[in-house]
Amino acid sequence: NLEGNPLKQLPSQLFYHTPNLRSLFMLEIELGGGILTNISVANHHYNMTLEFGYFKRFRYCTYLNQVPKCYPKTDGVSDFEHLLVSIEIRVAVWLVAACTLLGNLTVFWGRFINRDDNKVLSLFIRNLAVADLLTGIYLLVVGAKDLQFRSEYFEHAQDWMGSWQCTVLGILAMTSSEV
Fold first, then answer.
1. Which residues span the membrane (predicted)?
2. Is the peptide bond before 72 cis (omega within 30 degrees of 0)?
3. What pLDDT does 51 receive?
4. What is the CA radius of gyration of the chain?
């Protein structure tokens, strides 16, 4: 139980000499990747018998994908098996993505066909359509990744969250939101 400690980093060898560690309780600690990477590496290389992990955030469990019982089991959107945990979220993502893409492509087509004299209004409408189109693309990619990782998200979560594709997708979402 390491709760209540103001930990920012841990020595890389700390968990190497704890092969009988069964439970790790770090519920109130905000962790950086280095701490959990050390635990993960130790668990892989030294046959640790870690069975339980209790953390503040669901994403911390992605570092310990070999631990059978890691809590919390979900962040409300994702869980260990699925990027999009519930059928309602999956349906909403695909529905909003389709409507957003179709609707904003229609706006572009309408703006191209109808040459409006009000250039400022036309520019404003096109900018909003681009922002919404970026949201549609974002949702489309999230839905596609959910299908790709279906029933095995936990195996891919850490690689996906650290990938350049996920970073670009986050930039796309942020740009859309800011516009």
1. 91-112, 124-144
2. yes
3. 80
4. 22
Q: Which residues pair with 35 in a beta bridge?
A: none
Bridge-partner residues for 25, per DSSP?
Answer: 54
Q: How much is the pLDDT for 23?
A: 81
Q: What are the phi and psi torsion angles at 25 (to 5°)? A: -110, 110
Segment 155-174 mean pLDDT: 88
Whole-number Å distance between alpha carbons of 32 and 69: 21
Q: CA nearest 48: which of 66, 26, 61?
A: 66
DSSP notation for 51-116: -EEEESSGGGGGGGTT-SEEE--B-SS-BSS-SS-SHHHHHHHHHHHHHHHHHHHHHHHHHHHS--
Question: What is the CA 120 to chain-centroid distance, rounded?
Answer: 37
